[in-house]
Design a protein that fits this description.
The protein is α+β, with helices and mostly antiparallel strands and 435 residues long. It is 23% helix and 40% strand. A hairpin with a 2-residue loop joins strand 6 and strand 7.
């Protein structure tokens, strides 16, 4: 059956269940996805396939307890079983009055991105990138490139009367590579970009060009002796990684519920440098394939978690908001938009007396006090305003809550990969440890 028939059937099944269990609430989504996937290995196209997937997810609140299940078989027997399984899953939970779903949304239809693929153009852009790497980056060994076109069609409904129908399409590519020359090889690097069209050469998108240049420059790394405290310029990818980890222990559901967050009582107060505004904005035109409703069924809206250094919102769901008497987040995603600054990247580097540029951090999750320590990857030593060399065996450590207050510059330049728009960020007082 198609997804509308499956959605209608779930509506009927749940209406019957509500006759038996008056307080039953449910949300359910039925989705079909088509993926065109093209693979290139060692500069040669090696695979072209089309994948089809269907799924139905059912979330219920029964007797004030939540339950959820997912099935990829859209037939009457499996959909009935999915509802039974979700209700059965709720039975093992603990009843709390804080579980709820949003009031009914006015039914709406949404359409995003290209709904029919231009496969020839996608192949052309992929081949163009491979040629660019082969001809202009001689110290790069490209491992794999995966080109995709993804089209999805989904229907979301709730027992409160909500209904969203979303049809969307997008292109994406992933390229993995390493610096390579003779017997010297760097670790693997890569780039991922999602896009709404194929108007721009792939080399110009996301961090592709920079990542290739960094990989080439990392073939002869140096080691740093001893420890010192200095500035670090975080690349957009690295700062997004650090921020994701940090917000997880500062404003996410679990830390607000158990009150372990350092920011639990900081709403409306300054928690970061004035330069920093952190937006979570699914409706930004640069974001590809975003949500239209939250996990609780509210209409998704853009919001700022931090505005000019001031904490404006926790990233919590309806359950946490009800339990902790706060406002729930206006969306459920991590569509990250950080406002750019006024400093050119080259000027930011020129102002570093002794420090690092860091492309990623190999680390575990930060502790409750936001302390993070890890190995600086795709990193470069900067001295007297000049990039000296790539570094190896170098650790960085800091508290994320302090780092956000120690931001001194944010670049004019940003990187957009379809899921985020983030500039380079310079922060002081990072502990840098060499051999």
């Amino acid at each position: 059956m198609d997804i509308r028939e499956a959605s209608d059937l779930l509506t009927k099944i749940l209406e019957e269940k509500k006759k038996e269990q008056k307080d039953l609430k449910a949300q359910y989504t039925v989705t079909e996805t088509e993926t065109r996937e093209i693979t290139m290995d060692n500069f040669e196209f090696s695979l072209f396939r089309t994948l089809f997937d269907t799924s139905a997810s059912v979330s219920v609140i029964a007797d004030q307890k939540p339950g959820k299940t997912v099935t990829n078989q859209l037939n009457e027997e499996n959909l009935k079983q999915a509802v039974e399984d979700a209700i059965a899953a709720s039975a093992s939970g603990v009843a709390e009055p804080y579980y709820d779903i949003a009031p009914g949304l006015t039914p709406e239809e949404f359409s995003f991105g290209p709904l029919e693929p231009d496969v020839d153009k996608l192949l052309e852009r992929g081949a163009e990138l491979a040629k660019e790497i082969k001809e202009n980056y001689p110290r790069i060994m490209m491992r794999t490139m995966i080109l995709k076109y993804v089209r999805s069609h989904g229907i979301y409904r709730s027992t409160n009367g909500s209904e969203d129908e979303v049809t969307s399409g997008y292109y994406a590519f992933t390229v993995t590579f390493a610096g390579h020359e003779g017997d010297k090889t760097t670790g693997m690097s890569g780039s991922y970009v999602a896009m709404k069209d194929l108007d721009t050469p792939f080399i110009e998108l996301g961090n592709v060009r920079t990542a290739l240049e960094y990989a080439q420059k990392s073939l002869d790394p140096m080691t740093i002796e001893g420890k010192f405290e200095g500035p670090v310029i975080f690349t957009p990818d690295c700062f997004a990684q650090v921020l994701y980890y940090g917000l997880g222990v500062l404003i996410d559901d679990s830390v607000i519920q158990d009150r372990t967050s350092l920011w639990k009582d900081k709403m409306g107060e300054k928690v970061a440098a004035d330069l920093l505004t952190v937006g979570l904005r699914p409706w930004d035109e640069r974001i590809v394939g975003h949500e239209v409703h939250t996990e609780d069924g509210f209409r998704s809206e853009d919001y700022d978690a931090i505005k000019d250094g001031v904490l404006k919102s926790f990233a919590v769901n309806l359950y946490t908001a009800n339990k902790c008497k706060t406002e729930c987040a206006k969306n459920s995603g991590f569509d990250l938009i950080i406002e750019p600054g006024n400093t050119a990247l080259e000027d930011m580097i020129a102002g570093v007396k002794k420090g690092l540029i860091v492309g990623s951090v190999s680390c575990g999750l930060p502790s409750a006090n936001t302390e993070l320590a890890g190995v600086a990857k795709n990193a470069f030593y900067v001295e007297d305003g000049k990039i000296v060399n790539a570094v190896m065996e170098t650790m960085i450590s800091f508290k994320i809550s302090d780092l956000l207050q120690n931001i001194t510059e944010i670049s004019k330049e940003t990187v957009c990969d379809g899921g985020m728009v983030v500039p380079y960020v310079k922060a002081e007082h990072v502990l840098i440890s060499g051999k």
